[in-house]
Structures are given as structure tokens and as C-alpha cells.
Please model this.
Amino acid sequence: MKKSKWSLLLTIVLVLSVFLSACSGKKEEKANGNTSSNGGGSKEKVLNLMETSEIPYLDNIMADDQVSLNLANNVYEGLYTLNEKDEPVLSGAAEEPEEKDGGKTWVFKLRDDAVWSNGDPVTANDYVFAWRKAVSKDTATQYSFIYQVAGILNADKILNPEDPMYNKTDKLGIKAIDEHTIEVKFAGPTSAKPYLKAVLSFPTFYPQPEKFVKEQGKQFALEADKALYNGPFALTKWEHEKGWVLEKNDKYWDKKNVKVDKINVNILKDEATRINLFETGKLDRTSISAEYVDQYKDKKDIFSTVPESSVFFLRMNQKNKALANKNIRHALDMGWDKKQLTDVLLNNGSVPAYFLVPSKFVNGPDGADFREKNGDLNKGDAKQAKDYWEKGLKELGVKKLDLTLLNYDTDTAQKDAQFIKNQLEKNLPGLSLKIKAQPFKQKLKLEENMDYDISYAGWGPDYPDPMTFVDMFVTGGSHNEMNYSNKKYDELVKKASSETDLKKRWEMMQQAEKILIEEDAAISPMYQRGYAFITKSNIKNIHNHSFGGDYSYKDWDVE
Amino acid sequence: MVRFVLKRLLYMLITLFIITSFTFFLMKLLPGSPFNNEEKLTDQQKFILNEKYGLNDPVPVQYLNYMSNLVKGDLGVSFQYDNRPVSTMITERIGPSAVLGVEATIIGTIIGLILGIAAALKHNTSIDYLSSLFAVLGISIPSFVFAGVLQYYVGVKLGWLPVALWDGPKYHVLPALSLSVFVIATVARFMRTEMLEVLGQDYITTAKSKGLSNLVVIWKHTIRNAMIPVVTILGPLAINLITGTLIIEKIFAVPGLGFQFVSSIQLNDYPVIMATTIFYSVCFIIVILIVDILYGVIDPRIRVAGGKG
Amino acid sequence: MSMHEKQLNNDLFQPAVRSSDDAEKITKESTSFWQDARRRLFENKGAVAGLIIIVAILLLAFLGPLFSHNGFDDQDTSRTNLPPRIPVLENVGFLGLDGVDIRGVDQYKMKNQKDNYYWFGTDALGRDQFVRVWKGTQISLYIAFLAAAIDMIIGVAYGAISGYYGGKTDNIMQRIIEILIGIPNLIVVILLILILDPGIISITFAMVITGWTTMARIVRGQILKLKNQEFVLASLTLGAKSSRIVTKHMFPNILGSIIITSMFTIPSAIFTEAFLSFIGLGISPPTASLGSLVNEGFKSLQIYPHLVLYPAVIISLIMISFNLLGDGLRDALDPKMRK
Model:
């Protein structure tokens, strides 16, 4: 009896404690508005934002994902930074470089008022240290290739394990002339790379405080206080897997132009949760998917769509005999309605793609968009597709074709694939398309081994130039992965990469794209991805970048 | 008893060794590399990256390296998160998961026991039917549906409790409740069945005819004897909850361990896969040991330690 | 006293003629254990109701798709995400079957589908949810039976052997379970994807590997409890074989636990299947199962609740009827409940 009383008591205590802990809670958090008065009456401007994952890297050189790159873009600063039109503008560099050696050497004067968050000045040596670190084999950052893209002298040799110069980082084409001057040497003429300054705005090119980094050793950039910041914001709090806080960096040289005082970032992986938090005023901005677009698209003050520069397309593996047939490929490309896919299924500002190089991505030497000249390629209809199909089947001597569509295991990709399957099977009689979803890594492996028929693939730009798309499909290229080969195409890409006449170079790339899609139908472009967002109406001046970090919070404002 | 526990702990080491080894080699069979932008890496880059992390060595060598580090207590560093020690990653994240898991288990067990016992005592009455209906719904509807509904109605529409995030006790209520639904259903279901079973036994009739009060009969003779299946299933269930639940943590933005484990497997973050597996296995094996000991405490006639008969 | 003696003398009594055979004769019709169980099962109203619902769902799963002129993969982007609308019932306001969505917009009117009725609404690709739900039920029912069978065969046998023999056998068998549970399932599943072609066989395979461990542990726990009880000892001393003790004496006593445990296996199997299919091991889309319909529909729970509601209701109905039937079975088969 005694024992049972105790158990009963224990039960009651437990119930009560759970109940109490549920009810008490700590004091209601500060009002969640964007502005809360800050003691003396000056309004503090606060943004409540979200990311979908923990910060993988606070070290800007290691950053290789959207979250890290975006963070680096806001807490650090390099020679250039992108403005709202995605044009590189001076930031860490005081003035445009002085060109030497016929453009093969650039000498940068650094700002002498730029300092790290501990007060130390940002010096030329910090750049040299960081750049050498980036190409070192001990760092092994995934974005080391951007040094090759920029054409920094010897970068390709230092990064090639078979080269005698492998890992000799002091041979990299960067030198500190004095405390605030650096000299950068390039392998080729800089005039062939109109995108060079934009590339230099990439976080892998930002400086790092050598003394501090060495002091911290392995601990560097593992916590908020284990890094120094020279950007408009500083990371002041970082709770792993939960979120982090950015505060205006009061040591920043241009702090008078930073409008927002504080940014709270929460990690929110679930969409419904984000929307519910938005609805209850705890979140200021979130992307939304097709289902929710219908709900919000009429609310003009909060709804917006943002085009992005990633293009999704179907790879058609020419190792497959049927897909080696040009007519079959044309039929598969035209045999389904791309507009319905973007308007009904994706419904988030994505646009149908009849191209490889996205629109509103970069402007040519003439100031016109890359798409303006090439326009839409292979914009056929179901009837045309059927003609191609029948012609193709005849050439192959078959009546039926069984193909497999390799797919991502994500919700949207699975929905898209079902739509494409349904359309193609309806419009191309005799076709049976099986959908094969695979875990991400396995899908990549199958593509690499060219062990698939058709595959749902995508590509985002690594640097602001059509070349990042166009050179994917050269014969034997490591991203070709579909056995495509066209001599004319290879020739054009090769010539364009060393052409210094920018106008000619531009035309060559346009011609190459035409061959790839219009002539060969090597891939079937699906859509250029867009995002739909809902944003609190009092947040102004939002813009996003087509490569590198997504946003520059420096320009954002709260009214 | 002490000898039994020591012996079992020794077995645990052997079991763990087998689990670790199996997982290691199976994991190495997974396709692809542990690097984020794998699709964009060139062969040269892959070589350099593999070299840095010792992935160019033959798998048996990697295995020996890993095991010798493991013996020294070094679990390695994560690939996904910039050289962060895996042990820190687990200790940082286990807190919220464990708190939530314990809360859900306690709430679930208490309510489940009450429902199950009430249903059995009032067999074939409306109480029984209602409790059973609730239990069946709790089993057949996944917890994320409850979570979604609770979040929307209690969090957004009524505004009584926070929608999500993790900032104090208030924030525990909805996720703990969503998680506990399954526990309630499980405990209630098993308790009811076993209670009915036990209530039909001769010794209950004996106890009643001796003139013992109803409460004593139920508490001392019935509930205790009906606990075996509940304990068997509750142990591992609690471990599953405590070591993190992917979907509930995702929905309520709880900074727990659940996501880590799944994403480490999807991204081939080898050290994290290994560490979480070992962590989970240790918890699980210890709980099974406790369950085996509890068998004897609940019903002294049971001897797991001894042999047959 | 004398009067008494006079009235009762021995002549008044005659020995009854009765052979010893007659004493053993049973007048009531004899019933075997199973006959008796069946009788009691059909006397149980709940169990009968459960059985009827199961049969009804089975019939609907196969006949349901015939009620609609749409196939399960007939897409039409002009009729996406329509809420449910049923003739006659559409006039009963509170049922919400009038094609008006939660924002109060008549979607049928807006999308020019005034003459159409989609009983369970349509999904994001404009497919008739009614057909998809019943097609999905077919697959999920198969998975349910499969999971229950695996549990019954592997789980019960494994647990019984482990618990009954105890000692070393038990020790080794339990360690094997620990290893099976310790090795991350997801790794094993991904590796299975690499070697197996997606389809029902690979799902079966994936579930056989670990689907039965809970059942094995429950059965073992129960057997441990039973094996030292008096009736088992009695039977042992009378010279009964192990197999007889397990099947005849212990099995009926743990049947309740077995039935309840398999009730848990079924829904978890239904959702495991959905997950496996999603990552490419199961049935490839556009084919759906109830589990995958719930998973998919959940994403739009707040906007198109009908997408998650109907499959969830059917799963619940299946489970409720299985439980009713299970409870009835337990009562019917339990020797102690015999009247």
C-alpha cells in the first residue's frame, strides 16, 4: 500500500511538472515587430529571416553552399562587391586597378580605413594569406577552381596534383607591394574575361586576418567569436542547428550606409512552418511553393517572384541507340508543354526554357541580353513532335520505345516527372517512359557512369558569363555525361574561351548554343527556375544576386 | 545481478564492435563522395579533397584508422560542417531532442496508462470504445499530421502557443504533444489487452475473494502483471524519441539530432554517420538491458539471466 | 420415529441400470477449439462490423476506380486542386462537399468544371483523387497483409525460440536483433536500391530485413513470463514436448499481444512503403499508395485539406476495422475466455 501511494504521488508530481512547465514559460519575448524602441527612443531596425540549414562554413574560403556564401557575402568583404544590378563595385579596393603588362597584371590600392572587427586594419598581407590558403591542398576548398576561372597566374598548376608546381602556393600570382597595395598577375590577357571583376567579388577571394587565423588554429570560424568580420554585419550569436544573429558591424568603414541594425536568422526546414510563422509575424520573408502561391498571389504588397539563373533540362544519353537519333531527341524535346509545367505545376515564377543560357543573366558587349539574339529554340508543338517521332522510329526501324527517366527524389521533381511522362506518352505513340527516382548521390553516380536514358538535371552558373553554361557539353567534358559530341560546337567553345574581341566571343557562344539545341536537340531544356516569395510590406530595397551570395543585406531597409 | 549486468556490458562491446564494423563497410558501399557540390568537382579536385580526408586509402586501411581513433575516443570531424568535431555536434544537438523525447514519453505513458486501464476496467462500455478509437487513430495517423493540425489551429488560428522555434518551456508543448500521441496510443493499446488478459486470471479472482479492496487488486496484482509488453515496447520507443525525430523536429524547428542523422547518410558524411550510429546503438542496447532487468523486477518469476526452466 | 421407518424401506428403491459408457456420453454437440472460436467470433458485434468494413474496403479498392471515367493517371492541368464535390450531398452545406475550397471560392465555377463531380477532389496534376485513393488502397492493403505475415512468421517464431530456450540461445538471438536495429536502416535501404529494381518485391525484401524485430521482442518477453508459470511446469512434468508446450500452451496465451503488435506493424509498414517508394525503392510514380498520398497531401494540409483527409480516413478505417476484428479474434481464441 505504501508503495502504491508513492507511485501515485510520483505520477501526480510528474503530471503537474509537465503542466507547469508548459504553462509558465519565460517572459513573453520582446515584441516581434521589426522596429522596437531602443532605450533612448532611437528605433532599432530588426529583420527576422530564415535559412533552411545550419551554416556549414563560417570560413569564407571553405564556403561552398548557398547558406555559407550568403553569410560570407554579408559579414566579410573583398576587393569588389555586387550591387543591386549585379555589377561589381569597389569595396575593399579603394580604386579601380592600375593595369600593367598589357593587362596581365593588376595593381590594387586597398582602403586604408577598412578594419577587422577587433580593430586591426585589413592589409595587403591578409589578401595574400587568404588567396594562398584557398589554393593549398591542406585547405582543399571546393571552390578553388574559381582561381582557375579568374585565370590567376599559376593557379591551375598549383591545383594540379601531377604538376611539379602542385601545392607551391607561394607561386600564386599575388604579391603584397606595401601594407595597402596588392599586385595580381594573370595567366592570360584580362580583356578576354569581361566577368573578371564580378568573379573577384566571390567570397573565396576575400581576405583573412593571418595572425588571428593562426592563433585560433583548428578552432577558427567554428563559433561566432572565433572569426573576425570586415563586412557590413558581424555574426554575434550562433546557436547550432537553431539559428544565428547578425548585427551591424560598427567597425565597418561604410556603416552609415547600413540601414538595418540586427538580423535574426532561424533555421526553418519546413515550408508550412515558415508560412505559419510569417502569418503570426515572427518571420519577415520566406519563399513559397506552388500550393501556397494561389493563396498569396493576389496580395500584391507581400507577394513577389524572383527569377534565378539556374536552368533545368533533360539530359538525353546518346549511348542509348534511340536517343542517339536526332529526330527522337527533337520529338522528346517538343513533345510536352513546358508552359503548363511552369505555370501550373511550378507556379513560382519559373519560366519555360527553350535555351541553355538563362535570360536576364548577363548582358553582352552591346548591352543586350544573351537571349535577345538567339530567342527561343525548338519551340515546337505536339504535332511537330509527332512528326519527328514517327520519322525517328522509322529510321530506327521500331514501333515502340521503352525509356527510363532518371529523377531526383524531391517532391517537385517527382511531380514534374509525372507530368512529363504523361504528356510524352500521350503525344508520342509507342513511347513508354518509366520514372526512376534515386537518392541524390546515387543519381549523380548513375549520370557520371552514363547509366541512364533520360535524366532530370540542372545547372547553376559559377561565374557571370554564358561560358559557365556553354562549355558544359564539349566532347569528353566532365559535365557532358551524355556522350554528346559535335566538332563544330567544340571548336566554337574553344575559340570563344581565348577570344579577346568580346563581340566575336559573344557571337560564338550564341552560335554554340544554337547548335546544341536547335540543330542537335542534345538536351531538352525544361525551365529557368524562379522563386515565389512573401515579404512583409515594410521591408524595402530587396534584391538578389545571380551568383555568389544571394543577398546583400547592407542595402535592405525597414520602414 | 551485478555479474549479469557486467556480462551484458561485455556483450555490448562485442555487439557494438559488430555494428560499427558492419556500418562502416556498408557505408563505404554507398555511392558518391561526401562533398557538397560533387557534380561540379573535377577529378583533380576530387583527388585533393580525398587526400585531405584520407579517403584515397584502401577501405580496410581507413577502417583500421577509424577504429584506432575510436578506441582513443576520437570520433573524427564532419565533412558537411567545416571540420567541426562530431562529438561536439552530437552534444550540441542531443539536448533539445532528449528533453522533447523524455517529455513525450512521460506524457504519453501517463495518459496511455490511464486510458488503457480505464478501457480494460470498463470493458465493452463507451469508455472502452472511445479509448480504443483514440488509440487506433493515434497509431494509424502519422504524428506529422497531428503536428501540422496542432500547429495550424493552436498556433496560428487560436494563437495560444508558439507556432514553432525553441525558446523555452512554452515552445515544448506542441511538439511534445504531437510526439506523445503515438506513445499514448501504444501504451493504451497494450495496457488494455494485457489488463484484460490478467483480469481473467485465477489469482485475481482469488485476490478478490480474499476480500482485498478493488484498488489493491488492480494496483498490486493487475497492473504490474500487465506491464511486460508495455515495458518491452516502451524502452526502444523512448530511445527513438530521445535520439531525435526528423519530421517533428523539422516541423517545429527544434534544433535536435533527428535531421543530422538522416542528412549525414544522404550526404555521405561518414564520421557523422558512424558517430550517430554508435550513439544510437549504445542508447538502444542499454535500454534493452534495463528492460531485461525490469522484467525481473515486475515479475520476480522471470529470470532472463538464467537458462531454460 | 417408527412411522418413519415404515414408510421408507428398501423395497421402494431399485438400482438404476446404467453402463459406464453412458456416464461418458456428452449430449451437447461437441465443438472443436476452432469451431468454438468461430462461433464466438461471429457473436462479437464489433468483430463482425470490422470484417464487413474490411470486405467493403477491399471491394471498393477494386471496384471503386470503375465508378469514375478517369484513369488513375489522367492528368488535366485545367482542373487542378479541385475540392471534393458529390451530387446531392453538395446541397448539404455543412458537409463541405460542394466544391467550395477553404477560402470560400467555388473552384468548379472558377475552373469551368461546373458539370463535373470529383468525389474526393483532384490533385495538383488534375488527377481524380477518388480513383487514386482506391488504387492506392490496393497497394496499401497488400503491404498491410505482407507486413502482418512477415511479423507472424518470422517475428513470432524468432521471439518464441529465443524466449523459450533462453540462456545462450536467447543471448545470441537478442544480440543479433540489437545488431539489426543498430545498423542504420536507411543505409541498408539505399544499398538495396542499388541492387534491386524498384517494385513490390524490393519493398517486401526491405521489410523482411527489420520489420519483425518488435514482434520478436514482444513475443520473447511474453514467453519469458509464461515459461516459469505453473501450467507450463505441469505440462513439462507430464512429459510434453517443447513444440507442444509452445504451440498449445503458450501460444494461446500470448495471442493477444501478437494481434496487438501486428496492429502496430501495419500502419508503420504502410508509411514505410510510402517512404521507400519516394526514394526509389518502391512502386514508381505515377502509381500511388495510401501512404504516399498522405505524405504528398500533407504538404498542402492548410490549403487543400482534402488531399490528406481521404487517404488518412481510409487508413484509419482499415486500422479500426482490423482492430475490431483483432479484438474479436483475441477474445475468441483466448482459452480463458471460454464460457
User: Anything to note?
Assistant: Residues 93-255 of chain B form a domain with the MetI-like fold fold (CATH 1.10.3720.10). The first helix of chain B runs from residue 2 to 29. Chain B has twelve helices and no strands. Residues 137 and 185 of chain B are 8 Å apart (CA to CA).
